């Protein structure tokens, strides 16, 4: 039994829960939607993150989202205790988290948004896509009706990627998440449910919206997940060497120079980067 199996084997002894959902052992055993997207961006970077060699930075932007998530999960007290960095020295919340409180109040003023957020919270399910074990955690699950995911973002404006402006769903690849969630729910319940983004913005005045990702978009995204999952899983198992993107933090961190090059190559790399910008 190699190292990978040993680590995964340990994970098998404890069922998936909210406490261990993001543990290394379970992340090695299961693919998840964030992990799949990390592999899409850079295989080498995703692997380095999994192995703890180059952990993903916990940014304030991500923490604000987690703060709002925690409120709707009913675990805000635990979150506050775990993250002393969200407070100023005088004990007040830092400005970003005061704004998170404002976002929460705004959501609570909208009965329709609240209805969508009133499903079962943080429902964990597992399944298998293209022979690869998958795990999902649903923010608000309405049995037989809908899968709802809460997203806290800067705004709903399109952003530049791959040389064109893309709407926020395409930019953040929420279609991939929706496809994985819909498929794992289908495997567990036999029901094909709508996938809805409950979006809120961090603008001075919070905007909010409920956005469905249509089934045909999820079908296309699922085909991509089916196509690429086996390769990503074999990279995790050490059977295939991960490709490097040469533009992410992890690739810069592990870059090894082998000599000098004609400086004009930078223009070529620059162009390549532009074309492949994500
Ligand atoms: Zn990279």
- State the secondary-structure class: alpha+beta
How many strands appear in the DSSP assignment?
A: 7
Kindly report how far apart the N and C termini lie.
38 Å
Strand order of the largest sheet: 1-2-3-6-7
- State the CATH class: Alpha Beta
Q: What percentage of amino acids are in beta strands? A: 15-25%
**Helix-residue proportion:** 40-55%
* CATH-scheme architecture: Alpha-Beta Complex
Q: Give the total of domains.
A: 1
CATH topology: Lambda Exonuclease, Chain A
Number of helices: 13
As residue ranges, the low-confidence spans are none
- Shape, principal axes of CA atoms: globular
Largest sheet: 5 strands, mixed
The helix/strand series, from N terminus to C terminus, equals HHHHHHHHEEEEEHHEEHHH
Rounded average pLDDT:
91
- Rg, alpha carbons: 20 Å
- Which distinct ligands sit in these coordinates? zinc ion
Task: Tell me what the structure shows.
The chain has 278 residues and is an alpha+beta fold. The chain has a single domain, classed as Lambda Exonuclease, Chain A (Alpha-Beta Complex), CATH 3.90.320. 48% of the residues lie in helices and 17% in strands. The chain has 13 helices and seven strands. The protein has helices at 3-12, 24-29, 33-41, 43-50, 60-73, 76-82, 95-108, 111-116, 168-171, 174-189, 215-236, 249-254, 265-276; strands at residues 120-129, 132-142, 146-153, 159-161, 164-166, 195-201, 208-213. Strand 2 and strand 3 (146-153) form a beta hairpin. The model has no long low-confidence stretch (mean pLDDT 91). It binds zinc ion. Zinc ion binds at residues 42, 44-45, 244-245, 248, 250-251.
């Amino acid at each position: 039994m190699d190292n990978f199996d040993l680590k995964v084997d340990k994970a098998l002894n404890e069922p998936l829960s909210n406490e261990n959902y993001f543990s290394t052992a379970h992340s090695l055993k299961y693919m998840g939607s964030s992990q799949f997207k990390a592999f899409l961006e850079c295989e080498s970077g995703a692997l380095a993150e999994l192995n703890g060699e180059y952990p993903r930075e916990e940014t304030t932007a991500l923490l604000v989202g987690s703060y709002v998530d925690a409120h709707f999960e009913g675990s805000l007290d635990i979150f506050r205790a775990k993250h002393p960095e969200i407070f100023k020295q005088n004990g007040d919340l830092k400005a970003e988290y005061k704004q998170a409180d404002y976002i929460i109040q705004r959501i609570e003023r909208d009965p329709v948004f609240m209805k969508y957020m009133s499903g079962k919270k943080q429902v964990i399910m597992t399944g298998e896509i293209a022979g690869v074990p998958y795990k999902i955690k649903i923010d608000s699950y309405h049995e037989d009706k809908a899968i709802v995911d809460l997203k806290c973002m800067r705004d709903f404006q399109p952003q530049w990627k791959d040389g064109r402006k893309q709407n926020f769903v395409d930019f953040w690849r929420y279609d991939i998440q929706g496809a994985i969630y819909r498929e794992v729910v289908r495997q567990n319940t036999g029901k094909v449910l709508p996938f809805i983004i409950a979006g809120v913005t961090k603008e001075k005045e919070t905007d909010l919206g409920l956005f469905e990702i249509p089934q045909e978009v999820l079908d296309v995204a699922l085909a991509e997940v089916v196509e690429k999952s086996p390769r990503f899983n074999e990279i995790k198992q050490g059977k295939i060497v991960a490709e490097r993107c040469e533009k992410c933090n992890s690739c810069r961190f592990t870059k090894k120079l082998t000599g000098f090059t004609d400086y004009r190559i930078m223009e070529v790399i620059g162009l390549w980067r532009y074309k492949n910008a994500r």
